[in-house]
Amino acid sequence: MNHRIGNLFKGDKVIWMVFLFLCMISIVEVFSASSTLTYKSQNYMGPLFYHVIMILLGLFVAIVTLNIPCRYFKIVTPLLLLVSFSTLLWVLIGGESINGANRVIRLAGFTFQPSEIAKGTMVLATAQILSAMQREDGSGADKKAMKYVLIILMPMAFIIGIENLSTAAILFMVIFLMMFIGRVPIMQMGKLMGAGVAVIVVFLTLVLTLGSIGQDSDATAATTEQKASKNEIKGGGVFHRFATWRNRILNHSDDTNKVRPEDYDIEKNYQVGHANIAIATSGIIGKGPGNSTERDFLPQAFSDFIYAIVIEEAGILGAIVVVFLYVILLFRAARIAGRCENNFPAFLVLGLALLLVTQATINMMVAVGLMPVTGQPLPLISKGGTSTIINCAYIGAILSVSRSAKRIEVSPQAK
Description:
This protein is mainly alpha-helical. Helices cover 67% and strands 3% of the residues.
């Protein structure tokens, strides 16, 4: 019996432990944070059952993926690129709107986010390009490697960024780090960084300028996010998200540290305000599982701001544990990459780990008020459908690489 279980959970045991711990935390916290959903549906256990089913389906996907030899990931790259571009265009033109942005496609009664597939596909393609273009003398990647990566990345990130800027930014950061790890010439990396800074400056100028055009002064909108949604409906086109981005930047840049608590306008920054309350009332060990009060006020308590709920219920110690789990995931992935004999699996495992950890870092920084609101869920913890299953597939791919890397370490002659 133990042998059968061992065969089922193959691969790096530490990655498995981190994965299962995150899943258990997810089930507890999503159940606690879903009070709004249970109230609306009048079904107390419904959101929990749905999330558990998604977790179990994700676990199945992870097990299937880890049993796929790493070399087969290369074969599916062209197909995944075609699917990613096609579905991204589909969601841009005819997708369903979530919080004022077209992000999901409904197919056969199910919804999925093409951007989740596109992120992993871009990491897969980048790993393949960087590994194929390493110089024979071991001095790093060929100068053409960056060009090929950007040819694929730029149109994909642009399409994603129209509706989901934070996801496009995360994708850029991860691919940049992968090119750095893949030893793309430092001069090229410097030029790319300079161009990136220039683009950010121009973009922020456009957002702060165009985002203010036609601002709705309707006093009935309870939050600036709601006002931005009204503006988006009026604006339309490529710039229809500018109002939301502008409001998020301005809300975050306001110097609230000088505002007395009794003078703080919580309606102006509703989500961040209640997230701060959740954190401030947590203490060292928190209020205990299921005892959150701010879950009833945070609109995305089970998704974007679930880390604030984790802190409220598990305290500072719980917050540190969650951070520590993601740190272990990253360092363990780096160790697996170091054992790989070939470049492709090493780049792939590092890219996928960076994708998960970078998104987690941004989510947690938003929850504690260090960044503007982005709408990014916490990987493997937040409630989700597509994102949960795809993130589990990423874990499965990391485990698949760990299996082959382990065999190479034990038997150097075997290839």
